[in-house]
Structure of Xylose transport system permease protein XylH:
Amino acid sequence: MDEFVRKLRGGELGSLPGVFCVVVIWIVFQVLDHQFLSPRNLSNLSVDIVGTGLIAVGIVFVLLLGEIDLSVGSVSGLAAAVFAVMNVNDGLPEWLAVLAAVLVGAAIGGIQGFFFARVGVPAFVVTLAGLLAWNGLMLHVLGASGTINLHDRGVVYALTNRYFHHTAAAYGLAALSAAVFFLTSYQDRRRRRAAEVPYRPLAEIALRTGGIAVIAFAAAYVLNRFEGLPLALLVFLVFVVGLDYVQRRTKYGRRIRSIGGGVEATRRAGINVVWVRVSVFAISGTLAAIGGLFLASRVASVGQTSGSSILMINSIAAAVIGGASLFGGRGRPWSALLGMLVIQSIASGMLLMGIQTTVQYMITGGVLLAAVVLDSLSRRSQKTHGRA
């Protein structure tokens, strides 16, 4: 607890503002409409966050470098269009069409990363050009029809329409989450203790595990009251946990954060900055493509409005609102999940109340501005306390 208070005084707010936003939004909308926290609405909410959330996870990695990727919306739309044309129009096997779509996203990200890291073109300019170019290519790929409906028995369609109805699935995932968190925390404690560096007391680990268990089992209870555990949510959590491990527990992840903290110092340490930058943009493109497939699955089609600029704005906003810093060096894949909960909760509440989308945009814009202001103030406070 003392460490937590010390971090707060030093300006390290982390995900606290995002958690506060979710709690306030849920309380306000539940008071205004009692259907907001119903099992059906929360289950739909857990699926709605996945497509854009995956794109936002890629944005988190780019933000860790202190850069931005404006092309993710167009890349997601293009990847979905490539899949739909190859699978529906040309009759290629679904797995091959999915692989081609994901490879398109990865290749685009790598190309943009090359122009940024090797050629020296600012990432803002490269990805802004990509936003326009890839959107135009998507329209060209779709052709005159403009809209392609997906097969309702395909794997991609099932991504957001498949549920594990047995209650053991959701409760099992909740128990596994708590167990994995405790074991990894305990192992980290042992390593830090052996290295004679500060470590968390067992009581704190137990308290954190208990908190996660309560949240996980409450979520499982709510999901089981509707259709059960959604496949989309399970896939999203696997991506978030896996990429969070990569970011925090591997040399590659530490190199990404190091570049965000200072490029020149990282280069002098012997790290291949160009390769890391290119690979991060490739990750962003890959996750944009996968997110595009989930978004196409949600509406069971790919059309000219796929990959709109609003998608790009929401993915960036989700990453920032969830706690990723625009200044680089701070952020986790969990930031994308938390930020998407904020944005999609606002959208869901507005829809239930019949409020126009324009109001939703204004509220989301206000929340984003508040998050950026907090990020700036936090960074200033950290500099004052010698932490940045």
Notes: The chain has a mean pLDDT of 89. The CA atoms of residues 276 and 324 lie 19 Å apart.
